[in-house]
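User: My instructor asked us to take a sequence, write out its structure as tokens, and then describe one feature of it. I'm not sure where to start. Here is the sequence I was given:
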Amino acid sequence: MPTTLPLPTLRAAFGDRLQENVSLAPYTSARIGGPADALISVKSADELTETVSRLWELDMPYVMLGGGSNMLVSDRGVRGVVVLNRAKAVSFYNDSRPKVRAEAGVVIANLARRCAAHGLAGLEWAAAVPGTVGGAVYGNAGAFGGDMAGNLIHAELLTENGRESWPVEKMEYGYRTSVLKRQSLKIVVLSAELRLEHSTKETVSVKISEFSERRKATQPPGASMGSMFKNPPGDFAGRLVEAAGLKGTRIGTAEISPVHANFFINHGQTKAEDVRALVNLTQKTVAEKFGVNLELEIEFVGEW
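Assistant: Let's start with the prediction itself. The structure tokens for your sequence are:
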């Protein structure tokens, strides 16, 4: 589909950094998605600030892309600019109250392992979590009883007023959500400062290995978006989908995993429309059988 973006304006603003008509499938954990009209990679929080500020000035539509988990990009792709966040600076402050500052493009599982290498505990829950620090801050990522709300001291954000530091309280965290996710705010996560604890490399590494093994034992291999649905109060989305008899159901090459029913697997060349059809089927069936409306944990991105 032809773009409506003013590409000459973008070329003038970003030069060689601007890529055009770029397939997004390789940049998503599910390996699904059509092309972006334009893509710009950023390699630091400063570069991210400059890029997004310029896009705001130009009134250009854009989508932030980090690790590409928790999202389903449409087959038609994104009519706008995709900002690929590769800002990955990390700084440790190992004093009486240890902490780490990580830019938003840092893969959070890698950060957990770097903390272990420094003998610092507190982020072990993140060792098997897909995605980046920015995505984790945005959606209050969590696992194994830990979450971003429990670690975040403050997040550095780009707002229309410039760079701001928001304490964890201002994020208004809930289960897999935040004020950033609930409201359409003109805000971009630049970095996060996270609370850690003194420990030993061995102790933290053992815990990370334990969590990673538990994750491998219960979650399927293969390309997926991560958990599709939020767990409803007092229950588990995967249990409900399985009880509805949907485990192993396929539409095209998209499958509700026979290992864990809250994961939808791409078995190769899967269309986003097939995944969406599976989502609709699942929500309809679970609602009819159990009276539960499953809420998506992932987000639909692009032109649907």
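For the description part of your assignment, you could build on this observation: The CA atoms of residues 60 and 80 lie 7 Å apart. Try explaining in your own words what that tells you about the chain.
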